[in-house]
C-alpha cells in the first residue's frame, strides 16, 4: 500500500481499469456482490398511499414486490411464487416495474394465493403433498424495506445494516431539505446502450459543463469541489479563487451568475434552467427572478439581488401555503449542489425541489442500462399531480436541451471504453472525486482492486 495516498480525501491522482463498465463477468458478479447487498431506492412512498397498493422494483435477475399492508406498515417480498417459480406479479423485462392494488396476491399459473403478510392462503389439492407444505416452504421470501426522504428503499441482504446507517452522512446532511414533503412532478425513463455507471457518471460532476453545455458558461464558473462522503459523495461550486472553502460554496439556488446587471442575469439564468433542463428550479423561483428588474434599481449589488430574490421566493411560497424549509447557510453550503447515493442514485437538491437520477443495469448486460430522471417538488396540500412512469425516447423534445446534451456522451463513452487504445480512467482529483469514490466503494463490494495512484 502506497501510504503517500490520502485515500480518504481522494486528492491524489488515481486511475482504475474499465472492467466495471464493459466486462460481462463483472456485470454478472454485480448482481450477487453489489445489488443483492446494498440498499437501493425502489420508488416513492406516494406510489403506495392505500392499503393493498403495491409496486414492483426490478434489478438484474430480481424483482421485488413492495406493498402497503397497513397505514404505517410497508412490506417487501421477492416477486416469485414458491410453487414452481413463476413471477407472482408479471413484469416485462426492462420495465420500471408495475403497480396495482390487492390484498391477495394470486399466482396465475396454479392459483396459489398469498396475503399482504406473505403467508400462503390457498393451495389447490394441498393434501397431495402429505403435510410437507409447511409455512416456511409456502410463504413469500421477505426483503428488507424502509423509507427515507419519502423514498422506498429495499435491501435483499437479511444481514444488512439499517438504512439510516447505510445512508449516512448523506441522510443527515440532506434531512433539512425534507424531501418527504415533496411529490413527483415528472418521472421518465429510457434504455441506453451503455453501462449503468456511464449513464450515472454523466451527471456526477460539473467538470463537463464547459465542453458539454457551453451555453451555460455565460452564467459563471462551474469549477467544483467534489467529496467522498463514506459510501456516497457530493459536490458544490468553489469560491471564485478556487479555494474550496465550504463555507462560501454556492449551490444552484445561490448562484447569481456573472455579468454587469445581477438582476437581469439572475432572471435569465433561472429562465434558461427552467426551459433547457425542465427541473433544478421551479416556476415560482423563475417568476421571482424575472421580477427582479422591476423590483430593484439598476446597480444593486449581486448579494442584495440574491437576498431579495430568496425573500420573494419564500413570500410567494408562503402565500401558496407551501413550506420553505429552514436550512442554514452552513447546511446549504455543506450539502452543496448534488449528491451521489451509492450505488446508483443522483440527487440535485433545493429547498422546494430536487432533480434525481437513477440508473440500473438492464438484466446483467454490461452494455445496456435503464436511465431514469425524477423531478420532485413541493405542492400545496391536495394539489400534488398524479404521475406515472413515462418511457421517453432520448430526444431533445422529450428531455430538454441540457439532458439531451448529456445523453450525447453516453453511448460514445461506452464505445470508447472498449478501445484497445484506452489506458484507464483519469478522473480529475479535485472535481471528479465522486466518480473515483464510486469506483473505490464498488471495488470493495466486488472484491477487486481499488483505484491506484498514478506514478
Ligand atoms: S408457480 Fe405459482 S402456483 Fe404454480
Ligand atoms: Fe450535464
Structure, described:
The chain has 455 residues and is of the alpha+beta class. The chain folds into 2 domains: 1-17 and 172-257 and 329-455, Naphthalene 1,2-dioxygenase Alpha Subunit, Chain A, domain 1 (Alpha-Beta Complex), CATH 3.90.380; 35-167, Rieske Iron-sulfur Protein (3-layer Sandwich). The chain has 14 helices and 20 strands. Helix 8 (262-276) runs antiparallel to helix 9 and helix 9 packs across helix 11 (302-319). The longest helix has 22 residues, at 396-417. The chain is globular. Bound molecules: FE2/S2 (inorganic) cluster and fe (ii) ion (FE2). Fe (ii) ion binds next to loops.
Blueprint (SSEs and pairs):
Blueprint: E1 14-15, H1 19-22, H2 24-35, E2 40-44, E3 53-59, E4 62-70, E5 73-78, E6 99-101, E7 104-106, E8 113-115, E9 120-122, H3 135-138, E10 142-148, E11 151-155, H4 163-167, H5 170-174, E12 183-192, H6 196-201, H7 209-212, E13 224-229, E14 232-237, H8 262-276, H9 283-290, H10 292-295, H11 302-319, H12 329-335, E15 338-341, E16 345-349, E17 353-362, E18 365-377, E19 390-391, H13 396-417, H14 433-446, E20 452-453
Parallel strand pairs: 12-19
Antiparallel strand pairs: 1-20, 2-11, 3-4, 3-6, 4-5, 5-10, 7-8, 8-9, 10-11, 12-18, 13-14, 14-15, 15-16, 16-17, 17-18
This protein binds FE2/S2 (inorganic) cluster (FES) and fe (ii) ion (FE2).
FE2/S2 (inorganic) cluster (FES) is lined by residues 81, 83-84, 86, 107, 109-112.
Amino acid at each position: 500500500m502506497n501510504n503517500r495516498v490520502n485515500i480518504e480525501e481522494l486528492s491524489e491522482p488515481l486511475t482504475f481499469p474499465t472492467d466495471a463498465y464493459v466486462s460481462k463477468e463483472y456485470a454478472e458478479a454485480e448482481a450477487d456482490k453489489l445489488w443483492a447487498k446494498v440498499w437501493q431506492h425502489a420508488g416513492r412512498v406516494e406510489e403506495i398511499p392505500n392499503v393493498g397498493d403495491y409496486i414492483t422494483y426490478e434489478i438484474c435477475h430480481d424483482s421485488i414486490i413492495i406493498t402497503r399492508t397497513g397505514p404505517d406498515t410497508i412490506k417487501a417480498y421477492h416477486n416469485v411464487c414458491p410453487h414452481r417459480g413463476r413471477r407472482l406479479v408479471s413484469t416485462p423485462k426492462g420495465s420500471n416495474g408495475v403497480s396495482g392494488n390487492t390484498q391477495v396476491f394470486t399466482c396465475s399459473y396454479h392459483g396459489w394465493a398469498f396475503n399482504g403478510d406473505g403467508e400462503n392462503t390457498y393451495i389447490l389439492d394441498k393434501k397431495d403433498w402429505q403435510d410437507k407444505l409447511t409455512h416456511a416452504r409456502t410463504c413469500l421470501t421477505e426483503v428488507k424495506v424502509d423509507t427515507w426522504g419519502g423514498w422506498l428503499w429495499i435491501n435483499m441482504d437479511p444481514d444488512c445494516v439499517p438504512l439510516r446507517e447505510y445512508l449516512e452522512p448523506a441522510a443527515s446532511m440532506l434531512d433539512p431539505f425534507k424531501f418527504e414533503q415533496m411529490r413527483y412532478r415528472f418521472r421518465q425513463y429510457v434504455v441506453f446502450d451503455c453501462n449503468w455507471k456511464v449513464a450515472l457518471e454523466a451527471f456526477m460532476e460539473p467538470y463537463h459543463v464547459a465542453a458539454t453545455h457551453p451555453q451555460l458558461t455565460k452564467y459563471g464558473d462551474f469549477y467544483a469541489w467534489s467529496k467522498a462522503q463514506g459510501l456516497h459523495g457530493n459536490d458544490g461550486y468553489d469560491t471564485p479563487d478556487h479555494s474550496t472553502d465550504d463555507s462560501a460554496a454556492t449551490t444552484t439556488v445561490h448562484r447569481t451568475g456573472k455579468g454587469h446587471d445581477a438582476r437581469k442575469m439572475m432572471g435569465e439564468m433561472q429562465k434558461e434552467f427552467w426551459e433547457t433542463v425542465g427541473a433544478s428550479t421551479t416556476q415560482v423561483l423563475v417568476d421571482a427572478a424575472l421580477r427582479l428588474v422591476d423590483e430593484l434599481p439598476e446597480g444593486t449589488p449581486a448579494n442584495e439581488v440574491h437576498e431579495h430574490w430568496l425573500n420573494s421566493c419564500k413570500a410567494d411560497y408562503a402565500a401558496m401555503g407551501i413550506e420553505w424549509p429552514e436550512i442554514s447557510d452552513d447546511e446549504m453550503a455543506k450539502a452543496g449542489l448534488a449528491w451521489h447515493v451509492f450505488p446508483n442514485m443522483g440527487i440535485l437538491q433545493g429547498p422546494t425541489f430536487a432533480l434525481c437520477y437513477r440508473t440500473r443495469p438492464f438484466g446483467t448486460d454490461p452494455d445496456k442500462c435503464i436511465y431514469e430522471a425524477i423531478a420532485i417538488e413541493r405542492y400545496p396540500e391536495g394539489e400534488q399531480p398524479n404521475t406515472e412512469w413515462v418511457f421517453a425516447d432520448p430526444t431533445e423534445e422529450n428531455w430538454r436541451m441540457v439532458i439531451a446534451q448529456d445523453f450525447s456522451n453516453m453511448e460514445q463513452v461506452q464505445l470508447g471504453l472498449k478501445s484497445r487504445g484506452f489506458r484507464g480512467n483519469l478522473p480529475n482529483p479535485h472535481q471528479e472525486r465522486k466518480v473515483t469514490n464510486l469506483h473505490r466503494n464498488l471495488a470493495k463490494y466486488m472484491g477487486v482492486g481499488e483505484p491506484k495512484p498514478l506514478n
